[in-house]
Write a structure and sequence with these properties.
By secondary structure, the protein is an alpha/beta fold. The protein has eight helices and 16 strands. The strands form two sheets. Strands 2-3-4-5-6-7-8-9 form an eight-stranded parallel beta barrel. A six-stranded antiparallel β-barrel has the order 10-11-14-13-12-15. It starts with a strand and ends in a 19-residue tail after the last strand.
């Protein structure tokens, strides 16, 4: 059984180069499941682009890739006193988001996270006086600010960053590098124009790795097709099904099929669709991410660990075992069985050496 991710490699990499051209100094983010591609694959692509700094989510992810990636690694999870951490190379950069959690970082490379309107974590303006005495013992890399993804009318991000930079200027803080997120190329340009002595660097994963949806696709192998007898109940405890073909396909909860996260419902249309979804769920009508003959199939039973049972649409010819069906899945939660490249390309031969040291001020 196989759930496959297929990559149009040339098209995917052309998108990477395009994004890098719009955002000089871009810092690729590789965290979680590696955006569906895997950590090592994304680190190879980062190396291919000649980028010398990548961001990972946790110290465990840094330990996983540090031997295969020759550049520097920025760990986005903030440092906490007494944390259990694997052995990390001196190319690792840690994030500090609290003046109280700085123990043991003397001589280490550090980025300070600033509190944004996301209000998740970060140093506040009131924390700056307490932070200054310990900063002198660090190899200070710069400041960072993580902006909300969904800002009101999509505006205000650049001004929020600019407001922080002005405050840091007043406090005579070093402003060589500021790492930002969720800004447009135009907003980045405005910041560089207003503060020409500061280098603003965008951290992004989604824009870089998932910004060319036509270059990647998921597909699933049909494992079996049956036509149940009248009154039979496919799966565990579902309603009777008759006169419809059932298709067993590769892809279950271990791959990310059937998993959903809470959503913020910001419009009446969002709320109406959510209520309609609840109504369908009460009738055991659950749309699956699998598509056959141009139509999304319904689950005939809750997805299993590695496979799903689907109701084939009544007006569609049934598939046969071995056929491929398209699957619409969230890349950030999906773990495919295999990755296929089109066209087939050799492994990256280039390597990046060095660190951020020459750019530190």
């Amino acid at each position: 059984m196989t759930l496959t991710l297929t990559i149009d490699t040339a098209r995917w990499r052309e998108h990477h180069r395009s994004v890098l051209g719009q955002y000089p100094g871009l810092v690729p983010v590789c965290k979680g499941n590696g955006y569906g591609f895997g950590h090592h694959r994304l680190m190879r692509e980062t190396t291919r682009l000649g980028i010398r700094l990548a961001a990972v989510g946790t110290v465990q992810e840094a330990a996983l890739v540090q031997d295969s990636f020759p550049g520097d690694l920025l760990v986005l999870t903030p440092y906490r006193n007494g944390e259990a951490s694997p052995a990390l190379s001196d190319r690792t950069v840690r994030v500090v988001s609290s003046a109280e959690h700085c123990d043991g970082l003397a001589g280490h490379r550090v980025v300070v996270e600033l509190r944004s309107s996301m209000r998740r974590h970060g140093i506040t303006a009131a924390d700056l006086p307490a932070l200054r005495p310990v900063m002198s013992g660090w190899e200070f890399e710069g400041f960072s600010i993580h902006l909300p993804l969904n800002r009101v009318d999509g505006a205000g991000g650049a001004e929020e960053v600019a407001s922080w930079v002005r405050r840091l200027r007043e406090e005579r803080m070093p402003l060589r590098h500021v790492f930002v997120s969720h800004l447009s190329a135009e907003e980045m340009a405005r910041l560089h124009a207003e503060f020409p002595r500061t280098r603003f660097r965008l951290r992004t994963g989604t824009k870089l790795w998932l910004g060319a949806p036509g270059a990647t696709r998921y597909s699933s192998r049909v494992l079996d097709v049956t036509r149940p007898e009248r009154g039979n109940r496919p799966g565990a405890g579902r309603q009777p099904v008759s006169g419809r073909h059932l298709a067993v396909v590769a892809g279950g909860v271990s791959h990310g099929v059937g998993l959903r996260a809470p959503r913020m419902l910001s419009t009446l249309r969002d709320r109406a669709r959510h209520v309609a979804g609840i109504g369908h769920a009460c009738l055991n009508h659950h749309l699956s991410p699998f598509i056959w003959d141009g139509t999304r199939c319904r689950f005939a039973a809750p997805p299993g660990l590695q496979e799903s049972v689907l109701l084939v649409p009544g007006d569609s010819p049934p598939p046969e075992a071995g056929d491929e069906v398209a699957v619409q899945l969230r890349y950030t939660i999906t773990r495919p069985d295999r990755v296929v490249e089109e066209p087939r390309v050799p492994p990256a031969a280039s390597a990046v050496t060095g660190s951020l040291a020459p750019e530190r001020g």
